[in-house]
Amino acid sequence: MFKPFLLLLFGYLLGSIPSGYLISRRKGVDIRKVGSGNIGGTNVSRAFGLKWGVMVGILDVLKGVIPTYLALNYLSLEWQIALVAISPVLGHIFPVWLKFKGGKGVATSAGALFVILGGKYVLILFLIWVFTLLIVRVMSFASLSMASFIPLMLWISTYSLSYLALGFALSGLIFWAHRENIKRMKNQTEPKFKFKKSQESSNN
Fold this sequence. Notes:
mainly alpha, 74% helix
């Protein structure tokens, strides 16, 4: 049990590294005080432009990839692998370095899912996200739509109860992290996503 514990701890601590916060601080801005206040790639995109948001997204994806890859190679029990896979997502949403107030967990979940599911099923999830975003232009709605299909993708690709439970846990965490966004969507005050820097952002 020592090896699973080490991977769990490693996954959580790696997931806790606040990529968006660190990049924004390098640019002299605390991203938590800009826009939605979230440290994820979407808010970074709004503040500094798409390329910086993409960079944060890639770093957040890697936080999910690395621990899950190690778990698949060094652990044999699926429930242990599932626990390690969710640990960086927990770290990202509840980072110890930022008083447990982090991001939404979507990109980090995608990284873990890529390792477990492989490219085909992750591509399906990605297309759900892209098409929803293009149609609705609300990032949070696209992320929640994609998250709703995670348990199904894990089940039809693995038929594993451990991975099915992982799917529901990931989906539940993403919905919980988006609770404020859900309130704004109900009130029709959730901002639409723009694929370029706003004038206001460019003056920061």
